[in-house]
Amino acid sequence: MKLLLLLVFAFLISPLFAQDAQNNFVLEGIKMHDKGDYEGAIEMYKKALVSNPGSVQVKYEMASSYLQLKDFTNAIKYSDMVIAANLDYQDQAYTLKGSALDYSGKREEAIKVYKQALKKYTKNQLLYYNLALTSFALKNYKETDEALMKSLKLDQLHASSHFLLGLSMLEQGKRVQGILALYNFLLLEPESKRSHIALKELENAWKKDSKKEKSVSKKETDEFLTATLMLDILESSKNNEANKNKPAIALFAENTNAIFSILGAEKKDKKGFWWNFYVDYFSTLAANHHTEALCYYITQSKDGAYNEWI
Questions:
Q1: Region label for 85, one of left (φ > 0), alpha (ψ between -120 and 50) or beta (otherwise)
Q2: Which residues, at least 6 apart from 64, have a Cβ–Cβ distance to it below 8 Å?
Q3: What span, in angstroms and rounded, lies between the C-alpha atoms of 148 and 129?
Q4: Fewest beta carbons within 10 Å, which of 71, 109, 187, 214?
Q5: What is the three-state SS of 17-56?
Q6: What residues contact 271, with CB distance under 8 A and at least 6 apart?
Q7: Dist. CA 304–CA 310, nearest whole Å
Q8: Taking a C-beta distance cutoff of 8 angstroms, is the pair 130, 114 a contact?
Q9: CA–CA distance, 257 with 275 (Å, rounded to integer)
Q10: Of the candidates 18, 25, 83, 82, which has an alpha carbon nearest to the alpha carbon of residue 55?
Q11: DSSP conformation letters of the chain
């Protein structure tokens, strides 16, 4: 009887020990991954799979580490295993697989993966962003813009989506939409490695780029035609006698306030993503006399003017 009880007890606790071993290996692997030791992490995950060969978490973590090692074949292999299991981590595995395909130059295949995933995970903001990123690389701006708008409706604080949308607009010669998205990006991320790039793009967008604008039809620019013309007028006003001795940041703030106010006056009954998502916010900000603060805040990556202003 005692022997039988011992056998039953051993049978019950052995899975618990296996689970603990797997968890320990996974935790150690994640620590190594976070420290940049991707090869070490994969070795830990392999040990975890010995304890539990069917673990989708372990396979997902392996795919993630392989992606960092630029071993795209294995990243796709383990992502596919997670996707096929149809359990936890499936949406993240789609993202990993799409990224691996994108990085390996198979962008059309990556787009198919993202679209397949979005049929099931319609509220996954990161999938929309990744779809946009790959579409932008293929210069498919229509698909880029649509995906980014969906991404921002799900997470309006996703700085990268604002940044990419701004770049996409400027590539298409849509200057007003481009600057609105870049202002929003810089509001969320005023002092990062990307902030300096975004600020430079914003400053350039104020200046007329005739080469790009010639490629844009009148129909596409009608909605923001008045504001686009005002960009050129405001930019040229910097050379007026009254403005010659003004600091650049002061002129930037004045012109920004003017364009926000013009857009606010133009809105009236206009609806749509740009008017509701950006113009409403920035025109309200201008109406409440906060544009100067905004302009100093978003130019932190350029010089010390913000700190002096504070």
A1: alpha
A2: 33, 75, 96
A3: 6
A4: 214
A5: HHHHHHHHHHHHHHHHHHCCCHHHHHHHHHHHHHHCCCCH
A6: none
A7: 10
A8: yes
A9: 16
A10: 82
A11: -HHHHHHHHHHHHHHHHHHHHHHHHHHHHHHHHHTT-HHHHHHHHHHHHHH-TT-HHHHHHHHHHHHHTT-HHHHHHHHHHHHHHTSTTHHHHHHHHHHHHHHTT-HHHHHHHHHHHHHH-TT-HHHHHHHHHHHHHTT-HHHHHHHHHHHHHH-TT-HHHHHHHHHHHHHTT-HHHHHHHHHHHHHH-SSSHHHHHHHHHHHHHHS--HHHHTTS-HHHHGGGHHHHHHHHHHHHGGGSGGGTTS-HHHHHHHHHHHHHHHHHHHHTT--SHIIIIIIHHHHHHHHTT-HHHHHHHHTTTT-SHHHHH-
Q: What does pTM read for this prediction?
A: 0.87
Q: Which amino acid is at 146?
A: E
Type of residue found at 257: N
Q: pLDDT in tens for each of the 310 residues of the chain?
A: 554 444 444 444 445 444 556 678 888 989 999 999 999 999 999 998 888 888 999 999 999 999 999 999 999 999 999 999 999 999 999 999 999 999 999 999 999 999 999 999 999 999 999 999 999 999 999 999 999 999 999 999 999 999 999 999 999 999 999 999 999 999 999 999 999 999 999 999 998 754 455 445 455 447 899 999 999 999 888 777 777 778 888 899 999 999 999 999 998 888 899 999 999 999 999 999 999 999 999 998 887 666 666 5
Core vs surface per residue 54-70: b (16+ CB within 10 A) or e: ebbbbbbbbbbbbbeee
**264 token code pair:** 């606010």
Q: How far apart are CA 196 and CA 175, in angstroms?
A: 18
